[in-house]
UniProtKB/TrEMBL annotation:
InterPro entries associated with the record: M28_fam, Peptidase_M28
Pfam families associated with the record: Peptidase_M28 (PF04389)
Keyword Signal: yes
Residue ranges annotated for the Peptidase M28 domain, each copy included: 97-294
Signal peptide interval: 1-21
Membrane-spanning residues: none
Domain of life: Bacteria
Keyword match Metal-binding: no
Biological processes, Gene Ontology terms: proteolysis
The protein's name in its UniProt record: Peptidase family M28
Organism: Algibacter luteus
Amino acid sequence: MRKILLLITFCFISFPAILLAQAETKQCTLFDEIELLKHVKSLSSQAFEGRRTGTKGAVKARKYIINQFHALQVKPLGKSFEEPFFFVKKKNYEGVNVLGLVEGTKFPKKYIVISAHYDHEGIKNGKIYHGADDNASGLSALFAFAEYFKKNPPQHSVILAAFDSEELGLQGSKYFVKNTKIPYEDLLINLNMDMISRSDKNELYVAGTSENKKLKYLMSNFNYSCNIKLLTGHDGYDGLDNWTYASDHANFHKQGVPFLYFGVEDHKDYHEPSDTFENIHPEFYVEAVKTIIEVFKKVDQSNL
């Protein structure tokens, strides 16, 4: 009888503690980590043929993005998700940006653009350039943001931008920035993700703080993950490669819109057919996306 009473007492004491632990774990889950990895695997598979601008693989990728936006309750920025554009680079190209909108709860007319390009190198000499890190990783992180916003609406409106034709001279972001109907002063910042899924040193870099005092202060006081290192740099002042014009954030920077660019150092599979899902670092990648979301939260709560 005493054993039964002790067991009942233990259950009454421990059960709330178990529930609390489960609740805390659930609360800390920003997005479905397994789904994040599945997206990278799918988008970098042979079925998408390297996602070259203007190819069947790019069309398939675009449909994939739109389907995910619909499923995650993201609205189109305009009348539709698609923003077509044309440009000439040795030949005529037709690109299409995919633009989603999550309306802000406090500042709906002020916008944060979170971007990642979805195009890659396509097929060359019969070989598929899969583009897992570059940039299925950044694109899949957009879906993680959309999932996060379902339960955690942002204060400012957020444009989720999947840009096309980054590999052909940043053409998609160039068109968006030059043709947006949103005044530049209402575009508060661009958070751009390009190659964020692998690092032998567990290092994720963020560029864009050197010439913006508010961002520099925000990032200098940021300490989220013990599992990866978030380092400021690659701004042209530290002896490292200057990433200021390395990806789609460059077009925002040229118009005076602040940016934070998240990326890793180049690796041996950069722009090679071997940039496959099997070569990303899943634990690093998941932690990198969590870290970027935490940076967004700081930005969204700050006075830029």
